[in-house]
Amino acid sequence: MAGNMGVAGNMGVAGKNAIRDVVIIGAGAAGLSAALTLTRARRSVTVVDAGEPRNAPADGVHGLLGLEGISPGALLARGREEVRGYGGELIDDEVVDVSGADDGFTFTLRSGNMIRGRRLLIATGLVDELPEIPGVREQWGHGVLHCPYCHGWEVRDSRIGVLVTTPMAVHKAFLFRQWSSQVTLFAGDHQLTEEERTKLQALDIPVVEGGIDSLEIIDDTLAGVRLDDGQVVAVDAAVVATPMVARAELFAGIGLEPTAHPAGAFIDTESFGQTSVPGVWAAGNAADIGAQVSGAAAAGALAAQHINTDLIFKDLDQAVSDLTGDLAGRAS
Prior knowledge:
Blueprint: H1 4-8, E1 19-25, H2 29-40, E2 45-49, H3 72-85, E3 89-92, E4 95-101, E5 104-109, E6 114-122, E7 126-128, H4 136-139, E8 144-145, H5 148-151, E9 160-163, H6 169-176, E10 183-188, H7 194-202, E11 207-209, E12 212-218, E13 221-227, E14 232-234, E15 237-240, E16 244-246, E17 259-261, E18 264-266, E19 280-282, H8 293-331
Parallel strand pairs: 1-2, 1-6, 2-3, 6-19, 8-15, 9-10, 9-15, 10-11, 16-18
Antiparallel strand pairs: 4-5, 5-6, 7-16, 12-13, 13-14, 17-18
Helix pairs in contact: 2-3, 2-8
């Protein structure tokens, strides 16, 4: 009976040709949280991860109850160990092709291996499209920030420079003003509206006009913002509003396209993570570009519960159909 696959999953994946109950692409907070929930539900689960976590440059994960300040690497290592402890399989590889539909998907890995799964959970996260300002990439996750809820406490009361590289940056200035009274907006090429100028003035946020040349870095520490005219304005931290784009190109072949958003692009889902493609769920930053680690983990667990329920009732329908067929055969 098909439902027996779930029981077998508690003992790990039986061979490379086994059909997994669920294949999860991405071993971040969402993917590992989902894997943990599903393996505890006695499902056979394989997680494939390419090793490019978005928050790798960060010094710590913040706002995560009970694990405040844990390093991103330590959090993921702990999550991997927990998933393996319940029989989950983790493969360090990259999925390069996805095919199939509804109750059966095939995944081709960069290594050339292929795996199969009944359900797919996309937990591939997103890519921050950083502005091409010298120093931004080098300081990303340290001196250069984007989220006040992730890093605002760490730069409280310091000199914060908000670089207007997208229209969303002015909004960031309003937010970071909660953490420091020393916020400066570097307007760059952006033409501020009268409404924006009024709000900035009301919050006592000075505006520095003129193009931004680079970040001034001394001994691997951010020291200031260098303008096109050579002037350096001292700051302790810089804020950028990056377009956040879900890693979704891989799934175009199964009919899944990202949805545009003013802040980037995401995979649209219903409230439990199910996408418009039958058998496919998405969770974490792939589906919610503003989610912190705690939210991504919660979304992964929620999606996993509904994937498991979907499989339970799929197998139940099959069992009823088999029983009905057997009874009809005996009657004849």
